[in-house]
Every structure is written in C-alpha cells, then in structure tokens.
Amino acid sequence: MFETHQFNETLDKEFLMENYDTQEYLVEVFGDFLALMPEEIQEIRAGQAEGDKDKVVKKIHAISSAVGFVGGTELSDQMKRFEVKAKNDPDFDITNEESTALINQLDAFIGIIKEEHEQLS
C-alpha cells in the first residue's frame, strides 16, 4: 500500500487515501490524468492568446474536477472560483495576470502529478 508514501504537500493525501484503495489504481488514475492534460493546457493557452474567454472558462470547468480527483482539491476549488468570477464579470480580461497565474499553477501541478506518478510506478 502507499500509506507511507510522502506525497507532495500540494496534494490532499487524505482525499487520495480515502478514494484510491491500491497504489496500482492511483498510478492508473495519475497516468490517465497526465495523458489528457497537455492537450487541455495547450487549448487553454491558445484560448488565452486569442482572448477567447468562453473557451478558457469552458476548459477550466472541464478539467477542474479532474484536478480534484488526483488530489488537487485546493487548486480545483480555486479553478471553480475563477470560473465563476470570469463568467459573472462581462469585462473580465482572460489575458490578465490572474489568468496567467492560474494557468502556470496548472502547469506546475501537472509536474507534481508526473513526479508522483514516477515515484509510485
């Protein structure tokens, strides 16, 4: 079992322990997440570059749950708050610092999952 694994502090270890009963299952979930994320992040960055708020918000919405499912509960919550803010403010600039910072956090989070995946595999 992976109870003794020292997860990155960004991850919600309690959530992972409650929801994944074997290390093999968690490795599979991490692998599936990593397979999907590069394209998703690329589309978010493209939407931001185009100034396409709807595209960015839809992608953030689409992946926020996936981020939570791999232990990024705080980041997932932040993404959901971002989505609500962007949707409710017609003047929200999707190219602003807040948007860029969130996308950079997503990139960093994917790196963390990649490291965890490698350590657990």
UniProtKB/TrEMBL annotation:
<keyword id="KW-0597">Phosphoprotein</keyword>
<feature type="modified residue" description="Phosphohistidine">
    <location>
        <position position="61"/>
    </location>
</feature>
<dbReference type="InterPro" id="IPR036641">
    <property type="entry name" value="HPT_dom_sf"/>
</dbReference>
<feature type="domain" description="HPt">
    <location>
        <begin position="22"/>
        <end position="120"/>
    </location>
</feature>
<protein>
    <submittedName>
        <fullName>Hpt domain-containing protein</fullName>
    </submittedName>
</protein>
<dbReference type="InterPro" id="IPR008207">
    <property type="entry name" value="Sig_transdc_His_kin_Hpt_dom"/>
</dbReference>
<dbReference type="Pfam" id="PF01627">
    <property type="entry name" value="Hpt"/>
</dbReference>
